[in-house]
Structures are given as structure tokens and as C-alpha cells.
Amino acid sequence: MGKSKVVAIVFIGIAGLALILYVLFMAMQSNYWGERYSFTEDEPYDLNLFKILVDSAANGESEVLFSPISELEDTTTSKTLIFMGTQLYADSLEARDILNFIRRGNTAFICTRQISYEIHQALDSTDRIGDTEYYYDFSTEAWLENQSPQKKYNFEFRGAYGEEIRYWTHFEDSLQPGENVKLLGSFNGDSAKNLENFRQVDIGKGYLYVHTDPLLFTNLYLLENDGFEYADQVINHLPNQPIIWDEYHKVFRSDNDVANSKTPLRFVMQHPPLKYAWYSILAAALLFVVFRSKRQQRIIPLIPRVENTSIAFAQSLGALYYQASSGRYLAIELMKLFNNFNRRKFGIKRTKDNDGLATEIAKKTKVPLDLIESILKLERQIVYNPSSKIRDNVELYQMLTEYYKLVKK
Q: Where do transmembrane segments lie in this chain (predicted)?
């Protein structure tokens, strides 16, 4: 790799690292304006201050629920279950468990923009709460029905760049609530129309409170007088008893993945700086794979040079025959080559009792008969003579060479 390429790669690496550090720094310096509703975070639309407020109202007697409510003892009474989130995820069995928890004499405060369909199905017609709808505006005024004197609390929706329009959640107007449902709070819509957002229903020995907008209880508004006073008035509706803060029903769970809320990646995604760092690592890894695969190919192994060893083999073979001193073995090899040549080229097969071999070879090859007879005679003299010498094969080799020349003409 050239020096210029190394410098370019180092420069790109430093620039990429600087960009990642800048993104992380900006992420840590700026607020996260997403509606996350986390009770452990202090971003504008988290619930850290509201959690502190309800804990103080319960004299610090609170616990966080990360498992199904069915795991609580059946004798659990005089406790308040609080759920705050965009949507409450519960199947039919979990919805029934929540309502049974209330019927035993407990209280539930569910503040969500979308009420679980399974909870609607589990309620009797007289306890029907009603589904939710949306009203679009930059701000709204909310109040509580039983407050005297009644006061309206102003809420303006703000984002990273100032005031923004938002859809405020309320109970739908077309469906009347059940007979046991009581109106507790509303906010104003268009044409001075009141939109209900806070209801209560008696279920067995307990009470279910449903609020349609957790945004009104987030850190941003609790730092303001209107938001803090509104949240305090809502909490006053709840009995003074130990709190169970429900985190379990915030996460959708399939039948095959009931524990996905405990994965480490979920913790990373809940914190914007960690989330940006995770995405940056993935992007850097992808860039590394793309550019690395293009700039560096697989190392080609060094193949040794092929050497011609046929000459060395012939020399070694000749030395072995020479050391044997007897000419018999070399004569046998020379005649094997002779017989194979005749068989391949002329189809002549030599056998032990083939007396007319010389005549057959001369006839097919057009070689003089006396040369062929001399070759066969000299073969017998060398092969069957125990005292034959290696030098006796010189004459045989010369005759065979003359034979091959005549055949090729």
C-alpha cells in the first residue's frame, strides 16, 4: 500500500472519529424531546418529577412492577397501581388480572393515550369507559370537574424548535360511557367544546381512574405552576396508600418473547447518547467492511517454481543400472519400450511362443528383416546370459535407434 493511501486512510479515520465525538457531544448537550414517559429520566417529556410527587404522596411506600400483575399475592389490597405511557399492552388474561386486582379493593390509575382493547372487552357494559380520539392544536386548557373554585390550567406543546402543533387525546364523543362511569376532568376543544379526558369507574371494591394524556404530567409542565398544580389535584383523587408503579405493560410482548423488555439493547435505546453511540458504531462497522473489502484482497500464496526433474531422474536411473553391472535389467527395459511401441503403433502383440515375430514386424513396419532378427537375437544373448555386462546394451540401443528412425520415415 502506497504512502499516499495510508495518509488518506488515517485522515478519513480521524475525521470519522471527530464526527462521532461531535454527534455524541451534541446529543448529550441537547434535550431529548420525544414522548418517552420514563420515570428515571429528566428530559422534558419524561416522568421523573411526577414519580417523585406520587412517592411523596404515598409517604415513600412504592415499588416498581416489572412482572405480570398476576404474580402479586391474591391477598394484596389497599394499594394503587399507576401506569403512565403511550399505550398499555395487555392480553385478555392480563386485562382480567388488572380488573381482578381492582375488584379486591385496590385502585388503578391508568394514564395512556390508547386504552387496551382487551380492557374494554373485560369491562361490563355499565363500566364502559370509552375509546379515545384526538384534537389538534398548539395548546389547550384543562380543568377538574370537582374543583371549587374551578380553575383552568394552560398547557402549550413545545418541541426542540419552539411551539409545535400536537394532537391532544380525549374520550370519544360518539359513545356514551357506562352508568357507573363518573366524569372527573376535561379540556377545551374547538368551538368552546369540552372534551373529557379524566374518568372514574367503580369496579368491585376498588376504583379505576383513566386519564387520556400522560403528557400533562411530564417534567416540562411540572416545573411550571399550572402543570404542578394540575398534577397535584389529579393525585388528590387517589387514596393515600402504597404505590405500585407499572413498567411491565409498557412493552408489547409476543407469545414467544415475554422477556424482551429485559434485553440490554432496550436500556441503550432508552438513553439518547447511548443510542446515538450504538448507531455510530454500527455505521463505522459498515464503512469499515465496505472500504476494507475493496482496498485489500486476499493474500495470494507464493507458489514454488516447478522444476524439471526428468533429467535428474534419468541420471539416477542410469546410475542404478550401471551399478548393477549386469546388462540383463537394462535390456529388459529397452525391449519393453520396443514391444509397447509396436503394440500401440502397429497392433503387434508379442507372446512367448511367437516364432514368426520378426517376420510380422518386418511386414507391418517395412523395416529390413535382418535388422529385426539382429535385435531379437541380441536381446536373447544379453537377457539369458548371466555373465552379460552393461556395455553389451550399447549395441542393442544403437540397433533400436536405427529401427525407430526407419519406422518414422
A: 6-27, 276-293
